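INFO worker-7 received task bundle
INFO bundle size: 2
INFO processing item 0
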Amino acid sequence: MCGAGNNPITREGWCGRGTITPEMSFDNVIGQEWPKEALKRALKTGRLAHAILLHGPEGIGKRALALELAKAVNCTGSEADPCDTCRACRRISAGLFPDLKVLFPVPAGLSSEKETSLVQQITGDSYREIEFGRNVGIPIERVRDLQRYAAYHPYEGRRKVSIILEADQMRPEAANALLKTLEEPPHYLLLVLTARNPDALLPTILSRCQLLRLRSLTAAEIEEALIKREGLEPKKARLIARVSDGSLSKAQRLLGEDIDEYRDKAYEFLKIALQGDDLARVNFIEDITGPGQNRLVERLLNTLLLWMRDILLWQEGHQNEVVNFDRPDQIKEMAQAFNIRSIEETTKIIQNCLEMMSRNVNAQLILFWLVGRLQSTEV
């Protein structure tokens, strides 16, 4: 009889039967070639770690890679990669696989029906942003649920998998409870954690996980994904990809927003701040800082940062890298109003404005302060 504790776990089963682990492509994961290759090698050699931490910025594929890995160790329908058609793959995608448990930050008193709905959203579209709510975390009760779940052998699949999303939001008592499972994991259990800030996790948790860092996506990767997944026409996909900061989930959020409006407002603001009269400045600021318009002001400030980046790239001869590629005349015009030093100073000033917005400083006061600083900045 094979001893599970003495054999590396392969995709063929946790007792080591079958030495061939199929090559896998993780086609549902956009980019991230190095982490995917690392997991392929681990699966092929039967040396997949019992706990893996996928970390990096939001919207880059951490959840997607975790779910594909859950499929990979349980797929029964393909010799090449997770097939997405066998019972295990389909049930994982639907959030109904009995040997997959997903933990995530939850508000107090979340009903089981709402939790099930969230799990299905999480697994159904692995790049779509999920709103967990404010001031939430992963409580110790969820980790104890995980420990009870892990106490039993797989019911249907080859391995039990638990995915802990936003593990850096675990409450201290939950993190300490998880340590016991990490120190003495059942041989059939695979733990996959995701985090934006791994430094927020206990060092003892980090030391018991294999760490895989995921990078921000390139604009080209996001552009291709938007065309294929969302059916966008190439020009719009290219624009959204360039303003999404390497995050596909941010790009998806932008689909419902009027990017041209923000760009128009940002360009108009720069012109009025630098060349307009006091009345024009007052009218503009009062117009965009009415009740409930803080979101517009935040988008304006973020778009101003993109304009400053474009102006710098234009001055340094990298015109093909600008975000506002369809507005070369406006970039060229603004580039004549700034030098390198003033671009750097203005960028810092705008970043300070965003920081003040995060502290709920009055938006109108922030914009008037910004205008004053722009006028006093040497150009």
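INFO item 0 finished
INFO processing item 1
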Amino acid sequence: MTRKEGRAISHPNIALVKYWGKKDIEMNISSNMSVSLTLKNLETVTVVSPSEEKRDIFILNGHERPMKERMIKVIQLFKKRAGDVSYIKIDSKNNFPDSCGLASSASGFSALVKALNNFYDLNISTPELTEIARYGSGSSSRSIYDGFVCLDGVKSFKVSDWDDVKVFVILLEDTEKKVSSTEGMIRCAKTSNLYNLRLKYINYKAQEAMEYIKNKDFTNLAVLTMKEANEIHAIFMDSYPPIWYLNGRSFEVIDKVFELNSKSIKAAYTFDTGPNPFILTLRKDFEEIFNHFKNLGFKVIEAL
């Protein structure tokens, strides 16, 4: 059987309440709930087609890359389900830098899962796709949906849309991070006292965030988001050896956000596992905040 190509577009997301740590490493089940916002201006386009060689091939941004174990696992799952073990070519392109804390694995694996579903014509339901995507990357499970999304550990579900919320990224570095997320999670779980304390209440924080989103309460969501970012990076630094995802300019941006919020909450910062800040604002304040950082000489990218 000759198959036509399967194509899909997906987007990274930024977690406002982070998951950090795994309850089950083999099944890639996270240790806590997480809540995120999908960034529709950043995208990964993935095309799956029959391979012309006697091997599976992975092309990322025009260059062949080796397939990691998690990727092979996801591909084999689809091949088994389709009853088709023929070789495939995966061609994936990002319109943003990868492996530098912009959640490229989230959009990459979610795009892969959707493209494989289309290629093999399996018609797998969206909720089940979130579970399959999780095998590749926990955060990719959330990128199956647009808007605000919650990952409960096993699968993701849509929380709400909120079109008035805008996001931009301040690109401070586009180099690959020195400590991968998986390695960082294992190190923190083994060595950070703050990590174990966090697990006692983090799911309550996720529930709180979802209530703020449903009620469109930007002020409280912004404060929760910033405090959560501070907390998770404190855990990184509490690990041994410590993990430094932020840099000096990251802290400079944090100070600027507090200056902007001196009279009322207009913006919130958060970070993924990298130094690049994600800034959330309401639509009415977006142009002012975006241009403020642009005029300070920062490289800014509108993400949502």
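INFO item 1 finished
INFO post-check item 1: The domain at 6-160 is CATH 3.30.230.10 (Ribosomal Protein S5; domain 2).
INFO post-check item 1: The mean pLDDT is 94.
INFO worker-7 idle
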